Amino acid sequence: MNTRKPKRIGILTAGGDCPGLNAAIRGVGKTAIVNYGMEVIGFTAGFSGLIEKEYVQLKEHNLSGILTLGGTILGTSREKPYKFVKEGDNEKPELIKNNYHELSLDALVCIGGNGTMKTAERLMEEGLNVIGIPKTIDNDVWGTDVTFGFDSAIQIATEAIDRLHTTANSHQRVMIIEVMGHHTGWIALYAGMAGGGDIILLPELDYNIRSVCKRIEERFESKKAYSIVVVAEGINHPGEQSAGRYVAEAIHTYTGIETRETVLGYVQRGGSPSPMDRILATRYGAFAAQCIAQGDFGTMVAIKNNNLITIPLNEISDRLRFVEEDHPLIVKARQMGVSFGDE
Ligand code: F6P
After folding, report:
1. Of 209, 243, 261, 281, which is most buried with the most CB atoms under 10 A?
2. Ligand 1 proximal residues by C-beta, below 6 Å
3. SS (H, E, C) 93-136
């Protein structure tokens, strides 16, 4: 444990952006400055800023007015300093260490998803005082009950599904909506349930396209005018096309029923954070500043049963938080006749 009182801290946002990043930056920064009298700098474009020593001074006034803003005022990138793909890449970790020391940093806050936590762990092993804050719309960071960005994303996806119901009904079509979630189906499950999806396909559950088609035919036979199929982008499927396109084509081919697909894409990551995400990101940020003041490093802040805790970064590495097949929402959904394509 570091006994010296932290004075100067750096913050960066890495990986794909999501609503709530600015709320988290603000939470860390304001608490660090106002409550602990620290100095705060923000690295631009994720780990690239740390490698290239590009940063901005964050004073309290720079942190005002950003709570409601989407994206990140610092910018982000998918730079992975420990992934050596071309000549010279192996110098990146050294550059990071040198810059950290040259800038007299006492701690570094890394706001990101799974990849960012992995990099944070490596930096911790190199002797840097690191603390992680979990974010991603995908909600798949291991060790925490929820990441910020997720609530905003399911709000956007749910609204999109709501809108599909009326046009599906008018035309008596099967509407397929593909939502984000490369490895996990949290968005598909939550938005699918909130939006009244009839069939929900998740990467975690093996579906059978014939069962999906059978369910759709049964619905039409029982006078249900239309069906809504919510598909996570990461479901296993043949061919090169998107998951939504594959499912739409397959349903049309096997049933002859008219289908249309919507790939929701990046709108799920854009715009102002929901109130719940603002609160969550603020809590995470303020708690991270507190952890730094207390010398609790090498950890990620997390939420368990609505309590803020820290988890050692080396417990998280390479683990994803998947939707369990007996997740209570899945159990309830099945009891209500929602199909997951695996019956
Ligand atoms: O933020 C997570 C995520 O949205 C995934 O669901 C998606 O597949 C991925 O990021 C795409 O991000 P990018 O195109 O920025 O790499």
Report:
1. 281
2. 16, 136-138, 180-182, 233, 269
3. HHHHHHHHHHCCCCEEEEEECHHHHHHHHHHHHCCCCEEEEEEC
Taking CA atoms only, the protein residue closest to ligand 1 atom 15 is 16
In angstroms, the Cα distances linking 138 to 44, 131, 234, 323 are 23, 21, 11, 11
Residue nearest atom 12 in ligand 1 by C-alpha distance? 16
- Residue-wise pLDDT tens digits, 322-343: 999 999 999 999 999 999 999 8
Burial of 54 by CB count in 10 Å (0-12 exposed, 13-18 middle, 19+ buried)? middle
Question: What's the topology of domain 8-149+273-304?
Answer: Rossmann fold (3.40.50)
pLDDT tens-digit readout, 188-232: 999 999 999 999 999 999 999 999 999 999 999 999 999 999 999
Ligand 1 center to 34 CA (angstroms): 34
Q: Which residue has the tokens 């209570």?
A: 328
CA distance 158 to 194: 6
Centre of ligand 1 from the C-alpha of residue 116, in Å: 14
Q: Indicate which residues carry an active-site annotation.
A: 138
Side-chain-side CA neighbours of residue 115 (13 Å): 17
Q: Which residue has the tokens 């029982």?
A: 222
In angstroms, the first-to-last Cα distance of the chain is 52
Specify the ligand 1 atom closest to the Cα of 17. Answer: 1
- Tokens 């995470």 identify what position? 284
- CA separation for the pair 64, 311 (Å, rounded): 30
Residue in 262, 186, 202, 210 with CA at minimum distance from that of residue 235? 202
Coil vs helix vs strand at 239: coil
Nearest protein Cα to ligand 1, atom 4: 180
The whole model's pTM is what?
0.96
CATH pick for 152-269+325-335 out of 3.40.1190.20, 3.40.50.460, 3.90.1600.10, 3.90.1150.10:
3.40.50.460
